[in-house]
Structures are given as C-alpha cells and as structure tokens.
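Students often ask what a 'structure token' actually looks like in practice. Rather than answer in the abstract, let us consider ABC transporter permease, a protein of 368 residues. Its sequence is given first.
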Amino acid sequence: MAEVTELDLAWEGSAARLRLPETLELPAIGAAWRHLLPQLGKAKRLVIEAKALASLDTAGAVLLLRLEQAAPTEWQGLAEGPAKAMLERCRTALEAANPPPPPRPLPPVAALGRAVVRTGADYLSRIGFLGEVVVTFLGLFRRPARLRLGELLRHLDEAGLRAFGLTVLLGTLIGIILAFQSSIPMRQFGAEIFIPNLVGISLLRELGPLMAAIILAGRTGSAYAAELGTMVVNEEVDALGIIGISPLAWLVLPRLVAAVLVMPVLALLMDLTGLIGMGVVMASLGFPPIAVIHQLQTAVKLGDLAGGLLKAAVFGGAIGFVGCRAGLAAGRGPRAVGDAATSAVVAGIVAIVVLDGIFAILFYRLGW
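Now compare that with the structural description of the same chain:
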C-alpha cells in the first residue's frame, strides 16, 4: 500500500483501490494531484471507496473526476449527501459544451482589408454623427426651446469659469518661458527689445488658442465623454430615445454650444496672462512697460487676435464634437467609460493639431 497525503492507494494486481478520507478539500489534495494521476495511468481498473467521505469541495471533485477518466472506475459506498451532490454538479459542468475555439488569424491581405473596412465604417459613423448634430442645431432656429438654457449655463460654468485658474497659471508661465528663452539668442544681437514682438505674435496667433484648446480637451472633452458614457452604460440615453426625446438635442447641443462659446474666452485669457508674464520678464531685463506696449502695438494687429479667436472657436467645436461622440459611442463593459474618456482626449488633441495645420496653410495663402 502506498500513501499519498490522506488518500490510501492499494494495488491488487493491475487493479487499484483508493480509499477516500472524511474530508477531501484543496489543502489535502495538492500532492495527490501530482502523484495519483501518473500512478493510475497503468491501472486497468480503479475502485474508489467513499464510505468515509463526508466533505468535498470543487477541487476534490475535479480530482475524482480526473481519476475516473484515467481508468475504468467503480464507486463503493458513495452515499447520498453533500459530497455526492458536489460531485454530480462538477460532472455536469465538465460535461457541458466547451467554448468555441478562438477564430484563426486571417491572412495578411484579409486582415488589412478588414482593418480598412472597419476604419471606413468608423469614419462614416463620424460623418453621420456630424450630420445629425448639424440638422439638430439647425432645428433650433425653428424650435429654440429645445436648447436647455440651464444646462448650457452649467456647462459654461464647468468648462469656462472653473478653468480660469489653470488658464491663468499656464498662460503666465508660457509668457515667462517664451520671454526668457527668446532673450538668450536676442541678447547676442542686442535685439532684446523685439522680444514682445515675437511673444505677442506667437501667443495671439498660435500658442494662445492651442494651449487653451489642450486645456479644454483635457478637462472638458474627457468630462463630456465620461458623463455621456456613464449614461450609455446605465441605459439612460436609450431611455431618452424611448420616451421620444432626442439625445442630441437634450445632451449634445448644450455641451457643444458651451465648448464653442467658452474657447475664445479661454484663448483671450491665455493671451493676456501670457503677455503679462512676458512683461514681467521684460521689466526684469530693464525695459519699461511703455516700451513693451509700444512694441506690441507695432507688431501685433487686430487681425492676429481675430484669427486666433476664430481658431479657438473652431477648436472648441471640434473638442465638444469629439467628446460627445466618444461618450455616445461607448460600449457597455466595465472599461467603457474609461476608454471613452481616453479616446476623447487623444482624438481631441489630434483634431486640434490637424485643424491648426489647416488654419496655418489657409492663413498663409490668404496673406493673413
């Protein structure tokens, strides 16, 4: 007789007899799992004595069922009770249909075609969503009451007013950094007086709208996606459609209009604080404020400010559109909201950069 943990295994010629203990649970079968199955591989018959068996967990039941598969098995003394019920439940579960095997990977050409089709379908979905938003917005001229003023004011507060502190901080730092970095090469030519020209044009035309858009994408775009994604997961958006309320008019338009309205304000605040930061650096370099203001008046035109604010409004519309679309397209799993927020931030920043490049080419062609 050979003892394997608490299980007694005896050989009678080519037949094996296994006596089970009173308790057959996970702590007692660790060694048995490693040693019993190899030993029973040569057995032509297995007798399992289960008279003393009173307690059995799933690990013990799976072990006994594996022993049944190793050799023709005869049970002795297995009485009705919790142990037998556990064994039958595990047997039923193991005999159930196996999950289908994973699909085979497609050939490279087929995989490329599927990726192209999916990408095209995604872009068509975005275009369709844009068309629905435009149609819903135009419908406001016929029924202005569909735009909820209270919801619009709430989003203006969250996207604009609560972002003022961060915008002021970043704008001031950007102005200081640009002024200090510009002073290094300018000093070699005695041209430090032209630092306001460089910083003013950079801020008003490019950096002001771009940095404000990045702030809006990080704060507000992700918030839009998270809010709408949570509503999709909780089936609140479906409920609005069932009762006859357009989710676009009820949820998307207030957020989109708020993003468009608030972006020029954030860009203007970024410009002003950046110029103030630059002025502080110029004062530290020994230039009076009147000289800095004179240089700004000479270099910066009203068209520079207008072009920057126009870009900011377009950036706001793109961020609101991307954030709302990412939220409404969220899945139903536990990671859906997080994935939607991440997608909104990434896609929003990419859209900002692409639009900024388009504006740069357009302004260059127009001589603006």
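One point worth highlighting: The chain has a mean pLDDT of 85. Ask yourself how you might have guessed this from the sequence alone, and why that guess would often be unreliable.
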